[in-house]
Specification:
By secondary structure, the protein is an alpha+beta fold. The protein has helices at residues 2-16, 26-40, 60-77, 135-145; strands spanning 22-25, 47-49, 55-58, 85-93, 96-103, 150-155, 159-164.
Length: 172
Amino acid sequence: MSELIDDMLKLSRITRTEIDKADINLSNIALTVVDELRKAHPDRPVKVTIPDSLTDYADSRLIKIVLENLLGNAWKFTGKKTDAEIEFGSTQQNGKKVYFVRDNGAGFDMEYVDKIFAPFQRLHNIEEFPGTGIGLATVRRIISRHGGTVWAESVPHQGATFYFTLGYPPPA
């Protein structure tokens, strides 16, 4: 219960937090998050791919929260895989940089994709995959505050890919 209250407070604070934009290295932030996950789960072999020097203009503190949630979910939902793989990267769509976190974990039915970014929405059994159902709502709020969008694609039992954009251009 205290985890739920903490997550709700974090979600509320994110709405009021001022955004401090600067040039940031998302690769370094992702590596830090993965290091924290590896320390928390030292016996868990997970192949993680993160390219060097993914940079953008955003609030590093808030983007760390985004990556903690997305990479943390990928870590959690690959927990039953002996060959768990997680990738953080970027691609171009319509001339815009799009970041993604991809895994080969539990995945979900795309019929429910519109629900996953709402607070308290869960698509998996809490006993199987614990959590509060606040993480993706937090991601959506942060990305929205950056002027970007977030969406997901998935196939059940084959993994999921979460995409996001950051809408703020760097200052001229």
